Amino acid sequence: MKHDDFFRKHPVFTGEELAKHLSSLGEVGERTQETLLAYYRKTGRVVRVRRGLYAVIPAGADTDSYPVDPFLVAAKLTTDAVLSHHTALEFHGRAYSVQEQFTYSASRPLGPLTFRSHVFRGAKFPEALRRAGKESFGVSTTERAGMELRVTSLERTLVDVLDRPSLSGSWEEIWRSLESVEFFDLDKVAEYALLLGNATTGAKVGFFLEQHRQLLMVEDRHLKALHDLRPRQPHYLDRAKRKSGRLVPGWNLMVPKEVFERAWGEVP
């Protein structure tokens, strides 16, 4: 009973957090923690997500089927984990479709992890952010189920999903998700894109904003900053796939036809 308050406030917890809790009760020692975890795992109150990370199962719930919040798991995989890319879109309620993959960014992300029906993948903070000491640019702290977690803002997420589309699904998924957002702080969008300093990413962000200029109330100054960053030679929208399409000379981007025309699922 004396641990119920801890479990209520930590539906997903690390071994370090449990050790701190036990220390506050005067219960110290690695053996004490191991014994406690073994007891609660045996009784079905706690399940192991990975080494050093656990999830709480409410009393009376089925241990195998009770849903563990994947957002909380992703947020606890490393000490500096930030929900990002498509997972940030889902967290903000802006994803076009729900995915079984959850993505977080971190200084030293873990290898892929499968827990229940979800796959968790980590992405390194962009090198430009690490060099500038700005890994937390556009990151906010919020609460979910009584726990604090960190997530990228919609402005940073817009740039991140265009920077690394492989972490967010198809171009239709990316475009439809971003198009569901009615407002971006475009100064922050441009600032973050310039901070990354990637010419192709700057062009992709510029192309998206120009394509939605009226809807998002994009001003010339936002586009100019990104236009100055664009590559000097044509680049593919997705360099990994190099899909043929239409050249957008203003941004030196080769854009797939369906993205350029936003022709998702049209019947011929």
What does this 3D model show about the protein?
By secondary structure, the chain is an alpha+beta fold. It folds into 2 domains: 53 residues; 192 residues, no CATH class. It is 41% helix and 19% strand. It has 13 helices and 12 strands. It has a 4-stranded mixed beta sheet. β11 and β12 form a beta hairpin. α10 runs antiparallel to α12. The longest helix is centred in the first third of the chain and has 13 residues. The model has no long low-confidence stretch (mean pLDDT 93).
Question: Secondary structure elements and their pairing?
Answer:
Elements: H1 4-9, E1 12-14, H2 15-24, H3 30-42, E2 46-50, E3 53-56, H4 70-75, E4 82-83, H5 85-91, E5 101-106, E6 113-115, E7 118-124, H6 127-132, E8 139-144, E9 147-152, H7 154-163, H8 171-179, H9 186-196, H10 199-211, H11 213-216, H12 220-229, E10 235-236, E11 246-248, E12 253-255, H13 257-261
Parallel strand pairs: 5-7, 10-12
Antiparallel strand pairs: 1-3, 2-3, 4-5, 6-7, 8-9, 11-12
